[in-house]
Amino acid sequence: MRSPGLPEVTDPAPASAADEKKWEAFQWDAREDCEVRQILDRIADKWSLLVIALLEEETLRFGELARKVDGISKRMLTVTLRNLERDGLIQRTIYAEVPPRVEYRLSPLGCTLIGTIQALVLWTEEHQQQIIAARAAFDAQLEARAEPTN
Amino acid sequence: MRSPGLPEVTDPAPASAADEKKWEAFQWDAREDCEVRQILDRIADKWSLLVIALLEEETLRFGELARKVDGISKRMLTVTLRNLERDGLIQRTIYAEVPPRVEYRLSPLGCTLIGTIQALVLWTEEHQQQIIAARAAFDAQLEARAEPTN
DNA sequence: CAGCATCCTAATCGATACTG
DNA sequence: CAGTATCGATTAGGATGCTG
Q1: What was the pLDDT predicted at B50?
Q2: pLDDT under 70 in chain A at which residues?
Q3: Which of chain A's residues have a Cβ under 8 Å away from the Cβ of B22?
Q4: Strand, helix or coil for residue A78
Q5: With contacts defined as CB-CB under 8 Å, which chain B residues touch A134?
Q6: CA A145, A147, B3 angle in degrees (round to 5)?
Q7: pLDDT tens across B51-74, in order?
Q8: What Å value separates CA B40 and C1' C18?
Q9: pLDDT category of residue B29 using cuts at 50, 70 and 90
């Protein structure tokens, strides 16, 4: 399903960046195979946000990334980097040295994303206490409902 | 693993919203069980972004959401709505009527997210052509490399 | 060091049937 | 209408071993 080879461009001219208020129409929720949703899934996936955020600051090698992104496996790091590279968000530079060295950095396109990602992570950091509290309250409600006579 | 019951608050005082540049320290990439990453995974998941974006505009019923979010199953819509409700991002109102009616709307906390989500979706819409082109180029490279003599 | 291939488990998700 | 419960299929993802 994620086959290469450019799967049909349904919407040919959406890149008019000028109008900030295209939201009133709000037609992007339509089809499942809509490009926007596919791309959104990619950049918002479990590891991509992390990797982009890290590369936002500095160029990093594969091993450095592996160490910084705690919990990621070599396989998933490879997959994530490949996807981001395929989408043109990061650039991969191979240095022909004796111990192979490969560096990853944000591409110009990727750089246009950092503001948005910063905002998202910042929002999460600033509201995590509220969310944790909300979860606790919700779970308490559930338990109270589950064992009313206990 | 996603057990209820408030799983340990490691970071007790992060809600200082004033400093915009806490990014220089950049310590959020640390532990896998970090709250920020868990929350990020939740709101950035396949359906949550869609649902939040839809509720951003208007209050909607279960069936209306099901129709608007093309491709979602009843199960996933239920799961997504429950998660968002548990995180305190949406509010669920049950009307005791003959044909049951349940309405979902963004909570005040959820409303603080809409700007960020708008930005993310907007970015995707504005850059989708570039990404599609990057993918095509990347795939072409791969194929050229795979069959050099063919 | 970087990273691909393989195997295998665990989690996700969709379809269906049933309930208040 | 608005879900819940169950089951089977699909996929993501981790561990490991091998290559340039």
Answers
A1: 87
A2: 1-33, 146-150
A3: 122, 125
A4: helix
A5: 86-89, 109
A6: 75
A7: 998 998 899 999 999 999 888 999
A8: 35
A9: low
